[in-house]
Amino acid sequence: MPTYRDEAVILRTHKLGEADRIVTMLSRRHGKVRAVAKGVRRTSSKFGSRLEPFMVADVQLYEGRSLDIVQQAESLGSYGADIAAHYDRFTSANAMVETADRLSESEATPEQYLLLVGGLRALSRGEHSPRSILDSYLLRVMALSGWAPSLTDCARCGMPGPHTTFVAQLGGVVCRNDAPAGSPRVAESTLSLLRSLMAGEWDVIDAASGQETSAASGLIAAYAQWHLERGIRSLAHVTDDSREGAR
Question: 101 with 228: CB under 8 angstroms?
Fold first, then answer.
């Protein structure tokens, strides 16, 4: 059974026995990996702190029958402490890693790994509003997974937009003919913000009003949870946009 190395983001950990942990990671080249880190709960562990959620590490693993075994771990990005020190960053990061965990049930791509690393780095540095970083991540990772929402043309018939109705179950904006009865209208400024979040246009995103940001967040949460088929539990703890780091 071979040994291999890879870069990985730590998604979650579980206690195993008295001193070990099961570590779930999203790796750059091997997709989602579950491995046993032996002895990491002991104070004498050399790499236990490198295998905490939101950390990025260069890991060496031994391929096992059901679970791999972590042999070495070198830190590539120590984002955990800066994220955990701020509630809004922490809750947004939890929603991101939970989404990554769910999406990587199928084979993950290097692009998904890099997108998550970039999002966690931005959260740890306070580069933008935590909720906006989360929203941009959700839209872009859904697109990488083949579920890009239509934000201009009708998601059902392809009629050129702009349209003013967004229906998560139908794949994004829809024209009047395809909109279910009673579907609420969405302001063009909110749809424009969705397009900016998808494209990573941070000058536009940071200048958006709290009302526009909250409206966009609600649509993104509904869209992501519909396509993942089960709710993203961490989203229940994400606060409204506090604008921390956005100025």
Answer: no
